[in-house]
Amino acid sequence: MNETTPDEGQLESGRLLFAGSCDFIAAANNMRVLPPETIPEVCFAGRSNVGKSSLINALTGRKTLARTSQTPGRTRQLIFFNLADRLQLVDLPGYGYASAPKTDIKAWTTLTRKFLAGRASLQRVFLLIDSRRGIGPADREIMKLLDSSAVSWAVVMTKADKLKPGPLESVCKATLTSLSGHVAAYPELFVTSSEAGSGIAELRAHLAGLALPKP
Ligand SMILES: Nc1nc2c(ncn2[C@@H]2O[C@H](COP(=O)(O)OP(=O)(O)OP(=O)(O)O)[C@@H](O)[C@H]2O)c(=O)[nH]1
Ligand SMILES: [Mg+2]
């Protein structure tokens, strides 16, 4: 399976980045109230309930930093977290929640589109895909949006603990195949479980490569 495999030094850099301070900075529901673009940023996008907030909690090792929920559509704003003034993590509202009012979907698309297109500090978008579902129609729409926004993006498979190794490998293969036509897509997958902790150290290592160096 085409998974990222960082070396010991990169793993250690990732560990150190996330061992430092992590602070909630801002919650924004429009472009006028976004925090300043002072340090590199990465954001987490994906369907409602895919596990964006849980992933941020697993990365930061803080169980209740980002609010998670059984109810899809919990995160309705762009939530900014600052890691030791080296990297900002942005938790985006989920899309594709079937019973969300049309106006909500439109508001999400408008705000997210603006954010993705106009945020100079944004280094990478992580598109989360539920391992049990694979890429769906709503994800394909977002992939198109990401391609047109000129920001590089990578896929993170979530909830890997829910599948046995064989089916997990199949869904990862199919996902990688779908990525091949997207030039701005990182050609490897991050396969994670926020519940079991798998793949989290590898993703931290990758994020450390996008962060400002340790002072
Ligand atoms: N088994 C398992 N469950 C997970 C994992 N990650 C998240 N979940 C569960 O999935 C549900 C949704 O998780 P959230 O992190 O709130 O999802 P979200 O993408 O932030 O959702 P919205 O904010 O609504 O867009 C919760 O019940 C989590 O406990 C995982 O790795 N394994
Ligand atoms: Mg959330």
Spatial arrangement of strands, main beta sheet: 1-3-4-2-5-6-7
CATH fold type: Rossmann fold
Shape estimate: globular
The name of the CATH architecture is: 3-Layer(aba) Sandwich
Could you tell me how far the N terminus lies from the C terminus, measured between alpha carbons in angstroms? 36 Å
CATH superfamily: P-loop containing nucleotide triphosphate hydrolases
> Helix count?
6
Query: How many DSSP-defined strands?
Result: 7
Order of helices and strands: HEEHEEHEHEHEH
* Strand portion: 15-25%
**Structural class of the helices, strands and pairings?**
alpha/beta
Q: How many whole angstroms does the radius of gyration measure?
A: 16 Å
The CATH first-level class comes to Alpha Beta
Ligands in the model, by name, code or SMILES, are:
guanosine-5'-triphosphate, magnesium ion
Which descriptors would you attach to this protein?
single chain, 215 residues, alpha/beta, Rossmann fold, 7-stranded mixed beta sheet, binds magnesium ion
